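User: quick one - fold this with zinc ion bound?
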Amino acid sequence: MNINRRRFMGLSTAAIAAPHIALAGQSLNIVCTVGMLADTAKQIAPSNVTIRALMGPGTDPHAFRQTRGDVVALTKSDLIIRHGLYLEAQMEDLFAKLGKRKTILSAGEAVPDQHLLPYDDASAQYDPHVWMDPALWTHVADAIAAELSSKLLKNSAEIAENHARFVANLIRLKDYGHDILASVPKQERVLLTAHDAFRYFGSAYDFDVMGVKGISTTSEAGLYRIEELVDLIIERQIKAVFVESSQSDRNIRALIEGTAARDHDLKLGGQLFSDAMGPAGTYEGTYVGMMDHNLTTIARALGVDAPTRGMNDKLNV
Ligand SMILES: [Zn+2]
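Assistant: Sure. Structure tokens for the protein plus zinc ion:
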């Protein structure tokens, strides 16, 4: 058993010690931080469960601060699902307080240590963006399913069935990514985005990944960093860069202008969903849809003839 698993289990054990508010057959009120967690819980939970996300489309979780209404919702909930791994950096103090009397599942920390990437060379923290690899997200789905089953014993068969179906979709998504990206030559496997959210994508699909800002979004990219990246784009003949839904595109546009000034044609490959999903009620507003969009957009920007409407023929184009 590794350290992260222990940390995760520790929170679960605390959960078991807390009073069981929702008994079999009763509804359960769950509050999640990011949309990816809320959608995963929705895919797995039975219909008598209420699930909401604090952070909507376009919200940056590194910078997000809760409102008074959010605190009320968290306090009234039967179960809080947060990502952990320091993703919700501005909410750490609040969770430390709430954790003394509420059930908090840090679902992102269910990913075993050996699959986690270091945040940077200097710190002991891990990069939190594990949702960028659908295979790693299966651990998060497992943790949510286990927590739901422990709280809703009578629904455990339905939860198990939903969980199996969702995990099968994650595996199909992982394989779809490998299929459509297989033809991209090694030297063109570079993904340049606004911040370092895609390193797990890079690790899963053998891409070099670079962000203009660092992993967190709270430091501004310096002019030096832009110039350094312009050199690299020209050196590696990178064809496309991407903007992110939850980040400003100012730095990415500076890269396009910087390379154009040196006669290199760098195109905007499209918008990727990094730390938040697409609009509620759309396919891109689900975890699978968000990742289908990212995989398909990256492949097509690099010249692959991937299906325009993605793996499930549902992408809005
Ligand atoms: Zn991020």
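One thing worth noting: The domain at 3-108+116-177 is CATH 3.40.50.1980 (Rossmann fold).
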